[in-house]
Amino acid sequence: MSRFCVVALCAVTWFGCSGSTQEQGEIPIGIILPSTGSSSATGTNQLQGATLAVEEINAAGGVLGKKLKILYRDDTSTASAAPALAVELIDAGVPAILGSGPSSITLAIAPLTADAGVVQISGSSTSPAISLFPSGGYLFRTVPADSFQGTLLASRAYTTHGFRNVGVVYVNSAYGTGLAANFKEAFTAAGGTINAGAYVQYTAGQREADYTTLLNGVFAASATKLDAILLVATVGDGTSIFKAYVDNIQSTQPNTFWLFTDSTSVADFVTGVGASAFTASNHEGTKPSSPNNDDFSKFSAAYNTRFGSAPGSFAANAYDAMYLIALGLEKGKSATGSALKDGILGVTATGSAFSATQFSEAISAIKAGTTIDYRGASGACNFAPNATSGTNDLADGIYDIWQVQGGTVTVTVPAVSVK
Question: What fold does the segment set 3-143+292-343 form as a domain?
Answer without folding.
Answer: Rossmann fold (3.40.50)
